[in-house]
Amino acid sequence: MDFMDIVWLALAAVAGLLVGALVHKSVTTKRIGDADELAKRIVEEARKEAQAQKKEILIQGQDDLFNQKRELENEFKEREREVKLRERKLEEMGSRLEEKLEKATARSMSCLPQKRICPARNASWPSRKSFCRHASMRKNSAFPRSPA
User: pTM for this one?
Assistant: First the structure.
């Protein structure tokens, strides 16, 4: 081996090292680029997934609100029906009471004498009110008797 062979060998080794370094650098750069691309893709997929979950949660919340609103509306309608039913019953009771009052008034008016003398005052009764007051003074009688 002569000196030229050693120089050529040294140059070949240096060239091999340079080529190896360049190949290593390009492979590393490519790997880093691929890793960056993969990281960006993962982040983008995570964003899309988060957006989808957000939309799903919003839709679920809207559905829950809609269902609650519908339940409240149904409850309100039921209460409104109950109130109307109670109002109708009260009106019926009121009209029945008015009829009973009219009948009782008619009966009491038919039982009243046209003109009687008040035993407590020995005078004519001017009104029903005084009749009721004087009649309540007597325990065993519904109508006062005229002194005869």
Answer: 0.43
Paired residues of 123 in beta bridges: 118
Number of H helices, E strands in the chain: 2, 2
Determine the straight-line distance between the first and last CA of the chain, rounded to whole angstroms: 176
For residues 11 and 2, give the distance between their C-alpha atoms in angstroms, rounded to a whole number: 14
**Cα–Cα separations (whole angstroms), residue 57 to 43, 44, 53, 60, 69:** 21, 20, 6, 5, 18
Q: What is the pLDDT of residues 45-82, one digit of tens each?
A: 999 999 999 999 999 999 999 999 999 999 999 999 99
What is the DSSP code (8-state) at residue 114? S
Q: Are 119 and 147 in contact (CB under 8 A)?
A: yes
